[in-house]
Amino acid sequence: MEESQDDVSELAQTSLKMRVLGIESSCDDTAAAVLADGVVLSSVVASQDDIHRRFGGVVPELASRSHLRNITPVIEAALEGAQVTLADIDGIAATCGPGLIGSLLVGLSAAKAIAYVRGVPFVGVNHLEGHLLSARLESEVAFPYLALLVSGGDTSLYYAEDIGRYRFFGCTRDDAAGEAFDKAARVMGLGYPGGRLIDALSRQGDPRAIRFPRARLKPRRGQSDLLEFSFSGLKTAVWQYVRDHPITAESMAADIAASFQEAVVDMLLEKTQIALDRTGCTQLVIAGGVAANSRLRERACALGDASGVHVTIPPLRFCTDNAAMIALAGAYRLQRGEHDPLSLNATADFEL
Ligand code: KG4
């Protein structure tokens, strides 16, 4: 099943020639970016962590309201950062799903309004496609590549053959990896968002201190090829462990964090290795918020070194939700002359 560059479209190999405003508001970050000829001129993200922290997770209604407050200043900041005005923009791309419907509608409506007033083409972008292409924002990653997408809402494996051609290999049956990090952190009383906090604490801990379970899933009938993940059992195991062994010292918390993190990374990389073996692919991209995890980065690079696979992980600002990746995914479609009608709606559950 190995593919060569000859199978890849000209579009993926030629440089982009457009100035695109990208807008992203699928969850709790309001983001806008300007991409000119494939180069990121600006990328602005307004985080809502302070609003959701006390609830230990994203509250959809509060997220929508906060997007409403942030969207105009964020777009203005992106234009100012790129030293352009709306008159310089050739096209607009906005996330239209998957995500929280109220959140998506804010960015999408702003994008459509600007496109209408300015008379420029508009495209709706799948958030997951943005993440899959994010590695191409600052690196020369040629197709095909295997992509492990790990975020707060998603954990999936795709084989990216070309722009717009992504083969699904499997996803999580329950929690996403980022969600498991956030929930484990909450159980441990660490705060929100938990991924970064567990990552930092793990550096002082022993990843072999506690042997947390790694999910072994029975293949689904008729779909034995799927490479699926599961993190809810691990989350429960952390909860039970903390219930039975109240945390009394920082070193104990560090061991729990490191052991939990090791189990997540083991499960992620086990399935990734199977997908690499199956495809014979020599390129691996890891994207999404959890790609910021230092242990995942370290072990993915070691896996790459051991098996001759080139591993690309976008810089941190393009791992987490951002609009530069949305602008890039949109720019490919706009350059092909495609656009979406202004009647395009947001879709909470939008498959790639
Ligand atoms: O892609 P992203 O910004 O947005 C959503 O999917 O919402 O990912 C956010 C997720 C959160 O669950 C957060 O805890 C996790 O990424 N995350 C991390 C790290 N930094 C962020 N997880 C593990 N280690 C990290 N260093």
Predict the CATH topology of the largest domain: Nucleotidyltransferase, domain 5
The largest sheet has its strands arranged as 3-2-1-4-5
| End-to-end distance | 21 Å
The rounded Rg comes to: 20 Å
Computed structural class: alpha/beta
Features:
352 residues; alpha/beta; Nucleotidyltransferase, domain 5; 5-stranded mixed sheet; 10 strands
In short:
The protein has 352 residues and is of the alpha/beta class. 42% of the residues lie in helices and 18% in strands. The strands form 2 sheets. Strands 3-2-1-4-5 form a 5-stranded mixed β-sheet, sandwiched between helices. The protein has a 5-stranded mixed β-sheet with strand order 8-7-6-9-10, with helices on both faces.
